[in-house]
Structures are given as structure tokens and as C-alpha cells.
Amino acid sequence: MSPGPSAPAGATPRARPRSSGPRQLLPSMLMFGVIVASSSLLLMIEKGILAEVKPLPLHPAHGELPARRGGSAGVAKEEEEDVAAQVIHDIRNRTIRAACGQAGTPRSVWELSAAQRRVVLKHLLVSDKHRFLYCYVPKVACSNWKRILKVLGGTLENVNTQLKMDHRRDLVFLGDMKPDEIRYRLKHYFKFIFVRDPMERLLSAYRNKFRRSKNTS
Fold first, then answer.
1. Angle between helices 72-100 and 21-52 (to 10 degrees)
2. Which residue stretches does the UniProt record annotate as biased composition, category Low complexity (predicted)?
3. What's the chain's average pLDDT?
4. Of residues 9 and 99, which shows the higher confidence score?
5. DSSP code at position 135
């Protein structure tokens, strides 16, 4: 068998391009790991609380619920739904109190380390026009809420605009402000956050970070 054609004299051999797959996959794996850890922690907290919570009565005392129109079957169903909602609401409030009531839990962002404070403040979006702070959580509709903030700020026409989401442009982060500006807004602005069932959030992260990237590769 004759040898293949040799490279011209003085030519530099071409190096094979390295696959960037692992590098592209690493951020997705890290994000997925963070979501798994936070979801597991919330489930453990709720499990411990549920063991101590006394169930609410299946039928609230007379007069606790407003009178409703309709048949008795419809009223009974609405009462059951109200009781279930009350139980869930109570569990969530107890979860928050248990997590925030742990010994050594910081009561202010200024009690956090510098690195922790940067992370927290980078997740707080500011609307000076409407005087509120929105703490976004990945995989809890944060992209849609960022679009809403852009619409409120006048930099986006509507939330249905089919454009790739830029998670930095035209958004104001509390972490980019001076300490006195941060303190003022934390004290005087309305603050809110949205949460999601940990398992649903975990599944959403898996579909977004792994299945979608696999289908598009």
C-alpha cells in the first residue's frame, strides 16, 4: 500500500478542532446541581414541618366561609378546595418561618459575606418608576417577569415580542447601586418573589438544560 500524500514542505499541520461539548455542558450541569440542592432542601424542611403540623378540620366551623350560591354539592366542593388551599398556605408560611428562624440566619443583606451579598443583590431587579423590587428565581417564570419589567420601563413594546431574551440589557439590578441607594430601596420599596413546586422546577430545569440542548445539538 502506498503512503498517503504528504504535507508540503514548511506547511504547518492543522490541529483538530477540539469539541466544546463538555465546556458548554458544564454551566448547565452547575445550574442543574444548584436547583437540585435547593429543591431537596425545601422538601426536607417541608417534610419535617408536616410531621409537626396538625391537620386543619375538613369542615370549617359554621360562619368561617362566606355563603355561596348553588347546590350543596357545589358548596361542599368549594369548601374542600378552600381547606386544601388553607393547608398549603399554612405549610408554606411555616416553611418560611422555619428556614428564616434558624440560629445564625442573617436578618439583613449586610450580615452576609461580601460574596453572598453580591449574589443576593444581583437577583433583585429594581423598578424606580413603580417603586418595587423583584427577586427572581431561575426556572420560576423569571424570563417572563423580566420582559414585564422591560415593558413597564418602556424598552419593550409587549411581552409577546418574539426575541431572544437578554437577561442583562435594559434591566436595573440592585447590586449595581451604591450602598445608600440599596438601603433606601430595601426600606421603602415593595418587595416580592415568586416560588414554584421544587419538583416541577427540577423537571423544568432538566428539560431546558439537557433535553433541549440535546435535541438542538
1. 110
2. 1-20
3. 77
4. 99
5. E
